[in-house]
Design goal:
The complex is a heterodimer. Chain A is mainly α. Chain A contains 13 helices and six strands. The radius of gyration of chain A is 21 Å and the shape is globular. Chain B contains 19 helices and six strands. In chain B, the strands form three sheets. In chain B, strands 1-2 form a two-stranded antiparallel sheet. In chain B, strand 5 and strand 6 form a beta hairpin. In chain B, helix 1 runs antiparallel to helix 2 and helix 1 crosses helix 6. The chains are: A mainly alpha, B mainly alpha. Chain B: It comes from Devosia limi DSM 17137. Chain B: Keywords: Cell inner membrane, Cell membrane, Electron transport, Heme, Iron, Membrane, Metal-binding, Transmembrane, Transmembrane helix, Transport. Chain B: Its main location: membrane. Chain B: It is a multi-pass membrane protein.
Chain lengths: ~375, ~525
């Protein structure tokens, strides 16, 4: 173990960043499909149009969802206490997300197999729920992380959680949920705009401009709320960034507006919220000008900025506790061992570029617009 | 104290969702490879029928795959949701193979599955064949990493307990990956998946022959399935999971329970073919035994002794005692991290710490455990014997049946007599559910037989659960079971529909044809439409 060439502290920082990249990766890639799902009943009015939308994302959505699976796996492998506390604490919220996500693979696959309009309408609802509900609840979860979750750890690291599902639905958390929904719907609208035409594209653009605008306004309100209405957590004891994990060894204080402290300490981090605003504004303009790829890029930058803003604000916290301040988890006291972080980094450095390469290749093969005619030609179309 | 109702419900939920998930996984594993074989023949010979076969079995594969994905994501999240103390306690070791599964396998499989279905007219023949093989590769690699994770729960190598972090931490990752139990499990489980795929294709093809439909496709499929199935059936039985069973103490307990072997037998142990439980626990009333066989299967030798349940329980009681020494030393280290004497004591006895934790079921301050409680906890190391005993016999019985089954059909295929005997074809159709019976029995043996441990010797199952409320679990278990059952029923309905429609290039066309059939069937029979029903 003495031969690990990277410091524990550096590895913890790298994994904090990698976790952010994986979650942003899911929001950008999976967000395409969740956004299209959430827009399904609004943008597409006929069965033909719905099939166009489903086949637009059909060939690539499964790969995109793996960003979420990998994000979950990476939290488990790199920050086991975070995985343990968040997944068990937000239990019923996780169940709702899972039930919604379960509907997606079967919805895509089963919908087209029978022609009955009631059958298809039922699966349209399932696919809408599968897109809308996770988009909203992932945001609600981030809102609750900023608020702090009601949990305490004991000396054996056993978790005692004192909240329930309805306590998650606070006004601030719902606001974050709407920001998340807004940015993902914008992403979905950008995808539709780029690869369809006619009325379908027009409707998607209409809802996309609305959601981009809403995201900008709600993101600004959330920022003001964090500055003036929310207590941030600040560590007041000396932090040993290379020590074995032990959350209870630190002391924490609440400071009004404390989640903004990183921006004054490191002014360059303001880039994150700025990118969030600029990206969404770019998506707004792009949608109005009927641009495809540039809108998608702008919207992706916006998503990156918004999620990075949450990460930077919380840093070094991963999941603060509202009831037992020192139980709050930070990247310094909730990580895996030095060796595990190093091994996982090696595997990631080898495989993530390979994944990006073949994903890019698959998108290239499947490029081009999805028209009504192209659907008739493919016997495997959804 | 830990709420045992929550633990029981958490176990039920995990078992139910895992067993549902594993209805779909083996078929995905088996069909992906067989489709790749069929498409390879298409690319090599250029014969359109082989492409048609790949497409037809691929359609069924796709419906099954969707269910596998839907139920799979639940599995990954459930560790944190329902087993949060487990996630903390062993996440440093156990999380890594799960994350690597995503990076190395699931990404590959899920990214290329879209191209498999949508890429036929966008890729060259060889290009599409490569895609199909990559899907099969991803599927098999996925099984490898999941079984590395599961194998570690059965035989936790390459890790030690760190008193400063209160968890197990990796010391030797190579040992975790090349864990003999994991490797044996991988070969056994993947072979079982291949066998499932072969039986699935064989049974449906046999049905086509009986109905006199799609003869060319059915016969070719049966030749592939019979040869692939024979190899898989031999592999699944000969390279059985038992090869890893001597690796650890509790694996020996599992063997003893599976065999209802209450006392150590002189080597080489006999295999019990059949037994009737008696009213006095500990001794079967009647049994039929095959001398030597058990010893050969499990130890691969004639002179290694297999311990019985009674001896293993005595041994466990001893380990609880030493575990308590480690537990007390751990308390001293937690109170004062610089206590070198306590650390030395802990380092000497830590492998038995998990045994002391078995006492947590009976009292919180286990350092004051009575002799009676230690006796109770040591008895807890015995899994229920008879469910394991019978599950094992069902699984092995099915395995041997399929060796005979495929050997017979392989012979019939070589002499060109696939479709000459209708009763035999019906047997093949009726055999369709058997692989699932064996596979679910096999997982039951592996996981129920591991009890009372979540991780053998390290972490008792009851100690690993999240502190959820009973109401949380009733809600989640209710929703999962309802949704899974509805979706399973829909999947079977769709598969029947696809099979009835038979192989063709355009599935939506098939849906139209079905509707027409239905309309015609509703009309009074006339000479013109009478023939269509059969």
């Amino acid at each position: 173990m003495t031969s690990i060439p990277l410091d524990y502290e550096i590895l913890r920082l790298i994994w904090w960043a990698l976790l952010g990249i994986l979650l942003i990766g899911f929001a950008i890639m999976g967000g395409r499909d969740l956004g299209v799902g959430a827009l399904l009943p609004f943008a597409a009015r006929s069965d033909q149009e719905r099939r166009q939308l489903l086949n637009l994302i059909g060939p690539t959505w499964e790969g995109n969802q793996v960003w979420l699976v990998l994000g979950g796996g990476a939290i488990f492998a790199a920050f086991p206490p975070l995985y343990a506390v968040s997944f068990s604490g937000f239990y019923l919220a996780m169940i709702v997300i899972l039930l919604a996500l379960i509907l997606r693979p079967v919805g895509f696959k089963f919908r087209g197999k029978i022609k009955d309009p009631r059958w298809r309408a039922a699966w349209d609802w399932a696919l809408f729920i599968g897109g809308f509900v996770p988009s909203l609840i992932f945001g609600v979860a981030v809102g609750n992380v900023l608020l702090g979750a009601p949990f305490a750890l004991d000396d054996t690291m056993r978790i005692f959680y004192s909240g329930n599902f309805f306590m998650l639905l606070t006004p601030f958390a719902l606001l974050c949920g709407l920001v998340s929904l807004g940015m993902i719907v914008t992403q979905g609208a950008a995808v539709i705009t780029g690869r369809t035409n006619g009325l379908l594209a027009d409707r998607a653009r209409f809802y996309g401009t609305l959601s981009a605008l809403a995201t900008i306004v709600l993101f600004a309100i959330a920022g003001l709320w964090v500055a003036f209405g929310l207590d941030g957590h600040v560590i007041t004891s000396v932090v040993n960034t290379s020590a074995p994990i032990n959350p209870l060894s630190k002391s924490v204080e609440l400071v009004r507006g404390g989640w903004l402290a990183n921006y004054s300490a490191h002014p360059w981090t303001i880039a994150a919220p700025v990118l969030g605003f600029l990206g969404m504004a770019g998506a707004f303009v792009g949608l109005q000008r009927r641009l495809g790829v540039p809108t998608l890029l702008a919207s992706s930058v916006g998503i990156f900025g918004i999620i990075a803003t949450a990460g930077v604000s919380l840093f070094p916290f991963l999941l603060p506790s509202s009831t037992s301040l020192s139980s709050g988890l930070t990247l310094w006291d909730a990580s895996s061992s030095h060796l595990t972080l190093f091994i996982m980094l090696l595997v990631t450095v080898v495989f993530l570029p390979i994944i990006l390469l073949y994903t890019a290749w698959v998108f290239r093969v499947m490029r081009g617009p999805v028209t009504a005619e192209s659907l008739e030609k493919n016997p495997n179309a959804y | 104290m830990i709420d045992m109702t929550v633990v029981e419900l958490s176990r039920w939920q995990f078992a139910a969702t895992a067993m549902y998930h594993f209805i779909f996984v083996p078929l995905t594993i088996g069909l992906s490879v067989m489709m790749a074989i069929m498409e390879s023949v298409y690319v090599m010979t250029g014969r359109e029928i082989w492409r048609k076969m790949t497409l037809f079995w691929g359609t069924l594969f796709g419906v099954n795959f969707a269910m596998g994905v839907a139920t799979g994501i639940v599995m990954e999240f459930q560790f944190g949701m329902n087993w949060s103390y487990y996630s903390h306690y062993v996440g440093d070791v156990f999380g890594a193979p799960l994350a690597i599964e995503g990076l190395m396998a699931f990404f590959l499989e899920a990214t290329f599955i879209g191209l498999f279905f949508f890429g036929w007219d966008r890729l060259s023949k060889v290009g599409h064949l490569v895609v199909t093989w990559l899907v099969a590769l991803g599927t098999n690699l996925s099984a490898l990493w999941i079984l590395v994770a599961n194998g570690w729960m059965q035989n936790p190598v390459g890790a030690i307990f760190n008193p400063d972090t209160m968890r197990m931490e990796v010391t030797d990752f190579v040992a975790v990956v090349f864990n003999p139990v994991a490797q044996a499990k991988f070969v056994h489980t993947v072979s079982a998946g291949y066998l499932t795929g072969a039986v699935f294709i064989f049974a449906i093809s046999a049905l086509f022959l009986l109905k006199g439909k799609h003869i060319e496709l059915a016969k070719r499929s049966m030749v592939v399935a019979a040869s692939f199935g024979l190899a898989s059936a031999l592999s699944v039985v000969v390279l059985g999971d038992e090869s890893g069973y001597v690796a650890t103490e509790h694996q020996k307990m599992k063997i003893a329970a599976m065999e209802a072997m209450y006392h150590t037998e002189p080597a080489p142990a006999a295999l019990t073919l059949f037994a009737i439980p008696s009213s006095t626990p500990g001794e079967p009333a009647f049994q039929v035994q095959l001398p030597w066989v058990l010893g050969l299967i499990t130890t691969r030798s004639l002179d290694m002794e297999l311990p019985g349940i009674t001896e293993l329980v005595e041994h466990a009681a001893g380990r609880i005692q030493t575990g308590l020494i480690a537990y007390n030393a751990l308390q001293e280290i937690r109170a004062d991290g610089t206590n070198a004497a306590a650390r030395a004591t802990f380092d000497e006895h830590w492998p038995d710490l998990g045994y002391a934790l078995l006492l947590k079921r009976y009292r919180t301050d286990i350092e004051n455990a009575t002799g009676e409680e230690i006796a109770l906890a040591s008895m807890d190391t015995v899994p229920d014997v008879w469910p394991l005993f019978w599950s094992f016999r069902i699984m092995v019985g099915v395995g041997f049946f399929f060796i005979a089954f495929f050997a017979f059909w392989f012979y019939r295929a070589s002499v060109g007599k696939l479709d000459t005997n209708r009763p035999l074809l019906w047997v093949a159709v009726v055999a369709l559910p058997l692989p699932w019976v064996a596979i679910e029995a096999g997982w039951f043996i592996a996981e129920y037989g591991r009890q009372p441990w979540a991780v053998e010797g390290v972490l008792p199952t009851f100690y690993a659960a999240s502190g959820l409320k009973v109401s949380d679990l009733i809600i989640s278990l209710g929703f999962f079971m309802t949704l899974y059952t509805v979706l399973l029923a829909i999947m079977v309905m769709l598969m029947v529909k696809i099979i009835k429609a038979g192989p063709q290039d355009n599935l939506l066309q098939a849906a139209d044809d079905d509707e027409e059939d239905f309309v015609i069937a509703a009309l009074p029979p006339t000479p013109a439409n009478q023939g269509l029903g059969s």
